[in-house]
From TrEMBL, chain A:
Subcellular location as annotated: Cell membrane; Membrane
Xref: Pfam families: BPD_transp_1 (PF00528)
Record keywords, A-Z: Membrane, Transmembrane, Transmembrane helix, Transport
SUPFAM superfamilies recorded: MetI-like
Keyword match Membrane: yes
Superkingdom: Bacteria
ABC transmembrane type-1 domain location: 28-208
Name of the featured protein: ABC transporter permease
One Gene Ontology cellular component: plasma membrane
Gene Ontology BP annotations: glycine betaine transport; transmembrane transport
Family, similarity comment: Belongs to the binding-protein-dependent transport system permease family.
Membrane topology: Multi-pass membrane protein
Source organism of the structure: Sphaerimonospora thailandensis
TrEMBL record, chain B:
Keyword terms, alphabetized: Membrane, Transmembrane, Transmembrane helix, Transport
All residue ranges annotated as the ABC transmembrane type-1 domain in the record: 24-208
Family: Belongs to the binding-protein-dependent transport system permease family.
Coiled-coil residues: none
InterPro entries membership: ABC_transp_perm/SBD (IPR051204), MetI-like (IPR000515), MetI-like_sf (IPR035906)
UniProt-recorded name of the protein: ABC transporter permease
PROSITE patterns from the UniProt entry: ABC_TM1 (PS50928)
Principal cellular location given in the protein's record: membrane
Top-level division of the source organism's lineage: Bacteria
Membrane topology: Multi-pass membrane protein
Regions crossing the membrane: 30-50, 71-99, 131-148, 155-175, 187-207
Subcellular location: Cell membrane; Membrane
Record GO cellular component, one term: plasma membrane
Amino acid sequence: MKSEPLIRWDWITRNWDNGSPSAISTLLESHLLMAFVPVLLGLLVALPLGLACARWPRLYQPTAGLVNVMYALPSLVLFSIFLSVTGLTPATVIIPLTFFTLAVLIPAVVDGLASVPDHVRQSAVAMGFRPLRRLLQVELPVAVPVVLAGTRVATVSSISLVSVGALIGQGGLGELFMDGWQRQFYTPIIVGIALIVLLAVLADGLLVLAQRLLTPWSRAWRDAR
Amino acid sequence: MSWLIDFFGNAANWSGPYGIPVRLLEHLEFSGVAFLIAALIAVPLGMLTGHTGRGALIVVVSANAARALPTLGLLVLVVLLAGVGTAAPVLIPLIVLAVPPILVNTHEGIRGVDPDLRDAAYGMGLRGRQVLFRALVPVALPLILLGLRLAAIQVVSTATIAAFVGLGGLGRFIIDGIATKTYADVIGGAVLVAALALAVQLGFTLLQRVTVSPGVRNLR
Amino acid sequence: MTTTRRRRRDQNDGTKSLIIFDGVTKRYQDGTVAVDDLSMEVPGGAITVLVGPSGCGKTTSLRMINRMVDATSGRILLGGRDVREIDPATLRRGIGYVIQHAGLFPHRRIVDNVATVPYLLGWNRKKARARAMELIELVGLDPKLATRYPFQLSGGQQQRVGVARALAADPPVLLMDEPFSAVDPVVRTGLQDELLRLQSELRKTIVFVTHDIDEAIKLGDTVAVLHTGGRLAQMAGPATLLSEPVDGFVREFLGRDRGIRRLSFISAKDVRLDPAPADLAVGGDDRPIGLRVDGRLVPYGTFDPESDSMRAALDAALLSPDGTAVAVDGDGRVLGVATREALDAVLRKYAGGLPDQRAPADQRAPADQRAPAGEGSPA
């Protein structure tokens, strides 16, 4: 134990794709699934809900309160509660994480729509845009940067939080932490941390790229300043 | 529902070294110490970077890093490296994860104060420190408190997970319950932690009411 | 508000230069020059306006006085002392400072905002607050607003608080950086009038920055026009400036209607008045009601020869159906009428050039501030 190196590279090559359910590549796959599905679900729910909150401001207060409560709940708490409902399936991780992403994304959508300058909205009305068209062609595009900023936060958090699921037996790369802990073995732990951070950085980078492609005007505007 | 009755109705759960009161106190103790240390590090640092404008990059990077770093992995690694058995090593990841939210929000809060206000404060003859504490901090207080709240919740949450590496506290009910498949303990522990997190949330809301000037609260 | 320079004190009441710019240059690290070798003397007890297009260094010049910006070279003397020798915070506590958006502390009530500098100077709370209340009333605010927070006040009210705050410790010098630019024109006019009223009581040395030449002409005892690139183009009294711009830049910056605007500086008191004609209907209190034309009453224009300028008199004449302006006294009672011929007689006297009112008519501006030959005013 004393001479145990921090990383044994041969362990990585042996366990990367050895066909067992605990192979790193298998864990990576399930990690990706459990991390990205909540973000997608979250976006699907947060967009209409955020729109509704922006449209009817009275909805926002209770929604914001609920969202704050969800955000305050530790992930392990929600995992434990859903464990009794959905058992040892990815759903036990995916459903609570969807709540987390909602807690980030709903305010992002509302703030994004609120970031549309009033004169832009007014001139769209004045030019004869009907509400739906105005929403799709004017308000949503202008709101994209704020929504994407929220999506970045939600994605990175989601990728990291999945690993907590290991405590209830569904943790993707988090399983490596359990393995390392039980065997007092650093390599899987470090590999797990490194892969999760790498995934987070990659996903974040892709979202930044997406924002640049989706909203070329925002960059041009910033450069012009 | 019956699990909740099983857990909270069980008299054995309310006394002794493994009872709810002791676990709650343990949880509060670890969380409190970690939170205090994190606040003592991050609030002054955030004020410094926000006031001087230096080190903004470090602040942003630390925020992103804290979000991306897996809590459980960090806990397991630090405790393995430092040696199992004592509580002190467990505090390290708790503090490390609590610093960034305070740092970022304090920094942004101070930085985001209307430049006209800053200008007027200097123009009237306030010195650097007076500008910070008499003009910038009161205006940035809502954001500073937000950072402290996020950090406090983060600490409570991480302390729960830390039960896995041997820390006491409410997390023990969950971790031990999962190990022994005693779902009453798992759910009961989860409800206790949730209640604690919400109490922290509520506490900060009240604190904000008391400490933030009405002139700032209604700014937006 | 009439535009006669009623408030103008004569130039000889002991005013001396309080702030002296001596070859001041501000060059930023990227090489841009904000202020280029500026030398000027700011008279004490008067309003000096720095005006010019954006990028002319007017704000930088102002901010160098209280060391919000430090000059790269040259000296600024305040009451004979180089400001660089004075600790910035101490210096600033002795200089009132008003900025565009007031910059009030949002977390403090109005009264405590006004008392900021007295608190800094260590006054006790009671004295500081009493002084603040005094100033709140002085700047024309309802004392009830004292316990409000800034967000509960309108922009114009906030700006008044800004002025009160700057005056709180009774500093001899007041620096005002585009203080009225962010409010609407009606409120702005009110704030300008209020400032002139305050100044007639307080006689502070005020340095006022604006990009609005009309504001400069209205407020300034002396107007310094700065050129893009931070050079002083001309410094003169407003009337001299209007009649004798030194170059094309100043002339263009002054804009159109220079001739008409100059009339603001000629008192209407020399206009010959004729007895009111029979068709001017006068009420029981001697106030005019209207002019009878074809059996109905038509509105008329009036001016007060004591306080109004020729611009107001001419305006009144143009508003009346027969081209004569009705002269009234301070209470609105008819004194007589000024015919077009009578107005023209005064105008003829001043056509071509016009001294600042405070200087006797024969003391023209120094030759170096006069328009070069061939560039005489087109009026």
